[in-house]
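Ticket reopened. Same input as before:
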Amino acid sequence: MALLTVENLRTTFRTDDGPVGAVDGVSLSVDAGQVLGIVGESGCGKSAMSLSIMGLLPKSAMVEGSIRLGDRELVGLPGGELRRLRGAEMAMIFQDPMTSLNPVMTIGWQLVEAVRLHQKVSKAEARRLAIEGLAAVGIPSPEDRLRSYPLELSGGMRQRVMIAMALLNRPRLLIADEPTTALDVTTQAQILELMRELRREVDAAIVLITHDLGVVAELCDEVAVMYAGRVVERATVDELFARPQHPYTWGLLASLPGRNLASERLHQIPGSPPSLLRPPAGCRFAARCPFVMDVCRDDPPPLTPTGRGTAAVACHLAQDVRDREGARLSGEERA
Amino acid sequence: MSTVEQFEDMKTEGMVLARTPRQLAFARLRRDYVALASLVFIILLVLFALAGPLFESWTGHPVNKSNSTGVDDYTLLPVGPLHGCANGLASVGERACFVLGASNNLGYDMLVQLSFGARTSLIIGIVATFLTMVVALLLGVIAGYVGGWTDTVIARLMDIVAAFPFLLFAIAASVAFGASLWFVILIIALFSWFYPGRIFRGEVLSLRNREFVTAARMLGASNSRIVFRHLMPQLIGPLTVYASLSVAGAIAAEAALSYLGFGLPLEIPSWGRMISDAVPGGLYINAPFLMVFPGTLLVFTVLAFNLLGDGLRDALDPRGGTIL
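Engineering reply: fixed in the latest deploy. New output:
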């Protein structure tokens, strides 16, 4: 059974101009030990979805549908119970390690607090667990680092501390919201390497949110591509890169810097995502889609299985057209 | 030690020093001579206030006690400094010697009255500030953290208090309820919490949306834990600064009320009333020291707390420069 099951999740923000549906009917699931990548550009609802799962959205946001962790329903769970789950059963890593640690407290204080929020252990024992946690994420001389303030550590080190903190209570679900975006490239590689190691060690389900398909290719088992609050395509990583099915995914893949870097400018998808205040009636990608048909503007395509494993796509294009275009793009990529 | 030498020092130790915000603030404060001088003055003032009973036995003049020797038989003016101290300080204790003169036309001893007045000022300054800060923290943090409707109500309450004319209200209330030490303290606290309250509200407002607060919630921290363990410690900086400024304000406000005759009851010595004692009949024209001694002490005390507050603000300012 899947560890995390999200069904028909809708997250709506009330704004002065009216309700904004940041997440609009998303369904997905992750098994223990699996990494699900969620890909999409800024504003497509990735972060709103992860915060919905964690129950960290402000009260002004409405969360509907179903989020199940194991066999426990999280939507509608009272705040106190949700709080006991947060940090213990599920944890999250944020984008910017510069701001996600308390600047006026030592690393040790924050780690010990994280342990003692959920485990009834002595301070000394919590300290030991904190040192262990820091060592596990590859921080040199962890005992000395307990006395450090966040400002004394580099960005990469802080992100390691953040990861250690999230894993201290051995959560079953780990959500990583663009964990490498705010770091420089060499540090990114180290953090990705760390996550790959951790993936083998902790038997948690990991949801990795990113806009970087390179990160997805390195770390994930399955991928869901999101566009304007909806999942437009989901597949295993191999399937997605071998036979991408949705025109938006093609756009994303084409925008990756390929091997023939010198020859041409990077591809970009023309236009910008639709306003979620007044979303278009049909397919949300219709306005930017080079393959758009009349039906696309009126009927939203449902997420339909392609018949290859777990893969599914929300597109009106005929299967053979999608296969042909996807294969062409994938071939170009390889050439 | 020059900057270069210090740098050499660090190199030989083979490390670069990383300093916590607290260490940096102390380093900056150590170089702020104005703030240091203020701090020294405040410490001396506290010692001066504590020495009250010593002064009483030394001069032989109890506090609030009229002395016939303190009034000139012919002019009926309070005697001046060093009056009757012909044999120097050895003559103190003979009851005729007034080191700083007498403080009013009843012949109170100026030195003793000033010392006990310092007590009053410090007690009022500290207790009123404590109350002010408690209310300011409570309401400011609640308004900033809870937000929404609660925030609107508290913020408007702050506006109303800020718009209230302090002296007018204090005088009216003093007439209605009768003045006492607690009355003066409460009325000062009532009219000063809104300013630091606004500061704390603003601080919390900007802190609560910072990512580390979300991160703490992500780890399962409750609201009260976030407020008390994560947000409050960050308010220590502004709290110290505004506490220092608030002590100055409270001392000045008490002096003003007592000067106007609506402050402390007569049995409590007060610098403000000592100044006002010099006014009737133009006493201060013939005996200016009646006004100069308590006035100078009051000015320097208020100045010292204000300058210390300024110094603390500079020292705790994260934009402040780095000192090697």
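The domain at 38-50+111-316 of chain B is CATH 1.10.3720.10 (MetI-like fold). The radius of gyration of chain B is 25 Å. Please confirm and we'll close it.
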